[in-house]
Write a structure and sequence with these properties.
Helices cover 27% and strands 26% of the residues. By secondary structure, it is α/β, with parallel strands linked by helices. It has 2 domains: 2-201, Formyl transferase, N-terminal domain (Rossmann fold), CATH 3.40.50.170; 207-308, Methionyl-tRNA Fmet Formyltransferase, Chain A, domain 2 (Roll). The strands form 4 sheets. It has a 7-stranded mixed β-sheet with strand order 5-2-1-6-7-9-10. Strands 12, 13, 14, 15, 16 and 17 form a 6-stranded antiparallel β-sheet that branches. A two-stranded antiparallel sheet has the order 3-4. The protein is elongated. The protein starts with a strand and ends with a helix. (6S)-5,6,7,8-tetrahydrofolate binds at residues 109-112.
Amino acid sequence: MRLLFAGTPEAALPSLRTLLDSHHEVVGVLTQPDAPTGRGRRLAPSPVKALALEAGVPVLTPATLRDETVQQQLRDLAPDVAPVVAYGNLIPQAALDIPRHGWINLHFSLLPQFRGAAPAQRAVLAGQRETGMSVFRIEQGLDTGDLLTTAPTTIGEFETAGQLLERMAEDGASVLLQALDALADGTATFTPQDHSLATHAAKLSTAEARIDWTRPAEQVAAHIRGMSPQPGAWTLLDGARTKLLGVELAPEHAPLAPGRIETTKRQVLVGTGTDVIALSTLAPAGKRPMRAADWARGAALAEHARFTTDQQDGETA
């Protein structure tokens, strides 16, 4: 089939690579316009655009698909189907109607769970042990279209949202290809979603990423993992913001007060509303991520050092 691939970030690259190597023909790529990056704020292409140009595939970077000129460019490519992975732009009905098989989206949850912008992150935040990938036909509603296939996966005990998303992006590439193959050979079947079971996965915010140390240990750990790497769960130490980016297996240890820090030779332990958790990775203000134990050795922590929240700062001032 003739494919019009739509995607933008790193998570879309495994699927684009797989489709470029398949027996299908990628006749064009849709992606977000170049965006400013780095300290110099220079315009840079999206990861998908860079790969498409390297592969010699025509690239379109419209700000909107509502423009009739853009829609005519899509018609000129004569795609049979448009596979989508994290494109990040609304697709109007006029554009949805162009490929004869429609637009087929690889989504990183078991729909109808976690419709929206942050499905992998919300699954980790919720403390779930299982999530998965869904391939469905896009319609005007938010991730409401009929399902073509799903593939479950287990969430690791210490896996962060970023690690989960990277793994599902790799695994999802073959799931998407199998779905497209089924469309091509006429064996594909679509199943309506049970909309009564739908949940929403809103984009994460920095404000939401603040850690509440009074919550139970498993919830604090899930919060740190779900917010990693972006926006990054954060807390305060002596008034300076520190991002906590990962946890690891904690030893048997007596409970500590919420936020209280205790270090061993190999680990940094922190108290919560119940048990202690062990940090694996953190990023002090203005510095790159590092092993928590390495940070502790150079941080000259006070005897009763404690991570706090804004509210707790006010209470102890």
